[in-house]
Amino acid sequence: MRSATIRRKTAETEISASLTLDGSGRYDIQTGVGFFDHMLDQLARHSLIDMEVRCKGDLHIDDHHTVEDCGIAIGQALSEALGDKRGIRRYGSCLLPMDETLVRCALDLSGRPFLVWNLDLPSGQIGTFDTELVREFFQALATHGGITLHIDLLHGFNSHHIAEAAFKAVARALREAVEPDPRKGDDIPSTKGML
Questions:
Q1: I need a labelling partner for 128 at 20 to 30 A (CA). Which of 32, 52, 67, 111 fits?
Q2: Nearest one of 101, 150, 98, 95 to 121, comparing CA atoms
């Protein structure tokens, strides 16, 4: 079973993040940030990665530390669950429509973290959630998950739809990338012999 649990405690947050890559998309997310919980639900559901996240953060300040640190912990759990990445497809992509919105994601579980972000959210907030935190989450996920991650907005004007389409597109691309490749057996998907 490809799974991992990361526990992270700082002066700002206390987090437990558990992932099972070969899951069915079950989720149990409690961060104290309603919209963010909804986005992580989408990430689990559409990636088919079972995910349980608990976070107690300094929400009396704002949501920033909670969102960023959850990205760190989930990225670390993903990296640990993948191990040496033998037999995975490694690459994933998705073109995700949601009403007027169209988001493209392409990613590589390369071990070389990089985020290319071409996704502007037109409003500063979705409810009480600061939209700039969407990028902060994906930056932390890419950095600590060792992911080369490209996210592009092709169409869209509704911030909720854009953010949700981004999480779903990343989820679908992750689902493809972490899947075992039946043609590769136990090989590491790199001419270097390691990722």
A1: 52
A2: 101
